[in-house]
Design brief:
By secondary structure, the protein is an all-alpha fold. The protein is 86% helix and 0% strand. The termini are far apart.
């Protein structure tokens, strides 16, 4: 069985005093910010970082689903969706904010060139 995944996460969370929801928010944001910084030379760095965070979260939920199926015979989809929402909420918001900022900058630059 794959219980080592769930048990090791639970041990760490108990040790640092975080709820699973808080851990999803904090770890999702931390991974996103680190990746966006490392990839900052690329124009689409927030989108790439968001994609990696989403991939890591899907992998995490796949391992969680394997545990739930072993324990109960079925995956806990409600928890998986909730965990995914917590993990991706801030990275998605930051990606959208960054995209809106880039679009505004491009628009202002274009207008400046046209009115010269």
């Amino acid at each position: 069985m794959n219980e080592w995944w769930y048990d090791s996460k639970r041990l760490i969370l108990d040790h640092v005093g975080l709820s699973t929801n808080a851990a999803h928010v904090i770890l999702g944001l931390a991974l996103f910010l680190c990746l966006a910084w490392v990839l900052s030379s690329r124009p689409w760095s927030p989108v790439l970082a968001l994609g990696v965070v989403a991939g890591v979260q899907c992998f995490n939920e796949t391992l969680d689903a394997i545990d739930w199926i072993a324990w109960t015979g079925q995956a806990n989809w409600a928890e998986a969706l909730r965990d995914t929402a917590y993990t991706l909420a801030l990275p998605v918001a930051l990606t959208l904010i960054r995209g809106a900022g880039r679009a505004r900058k491009t628009t202002l630059e274009t207008e400046s060139l046209q009115h010269g």
